[in-house]
Write a structure and sequence with these properties.
- The chain has 116 residues and is mainly β.
- Helices cover 10% and strands 45% of the residues.
- The chain has a single domain (3-106), classed as Barwin-like endoglucanases (Beta Barrel).
- The chain contains 2 helices and 8 strands; from the N terminus they run βββαββββαβ.
- An 8-stranded mixed beta sheet has the order 2-6-3-5-4-7-1-8.
- A hairpin with a 5-residue loop joins strand 4 (43-48) and strand 5 (54-62).
Length: 116
């Protein structure tokens, strides 16, 4: 049996852009992706602390060091620039693996989206 466990979490990062006229996804600064152990095209869940929206999409690499967090396509309707979101990725593992697993969790500066 497998269970779904939080693998990666970017806790409280600020949305910098919302681009409705794009195919879809979330663009994330590559520094944040690396620190949180999230890869391009990985499925993520997003929670908007400002309005309670919860949704899923996939990740696109953003410019390294830019602090970009941009919701694209339909997801852009669920956020406003300046909103604080939590981004989470999950992995399937056995309960035995999960008991010894530690997720990658980062806490960027919400003013700059840079690593603290």
């Amino acid at each position: 049996m497998f269970i779904e466990v939080v693998k990666s979490k970017i806790h409280r990062v600020t949305v910098t852009q919302a681009n409705l006229n794009y195919i879809g996804s979330i663009t994330i600064d590559e520094d944040l992706m690396d620190a949180a152990n999230i890869i391009a095209n990985e499925k993520v869940s997003i929670v908007n602390n400002n309005n309670g929206e919860r949704f899923e999409t996939y990740v696109i690499k953003g410019e390294r060091g830019s602090g970009v967090v941009c919701l694209n396509g339909a997801a852009a309707r669920k956020v406003q620039p300046g909103d604080i979101v939590i981004i989470m990725a999950y992995a399937l593992m056995t309960p035995e693996e999960a008991r010894g697993f530690t997720p990658s969790v980062i806490f960027p500066d919400t003013a700059t989206n840079k690593l603290i």
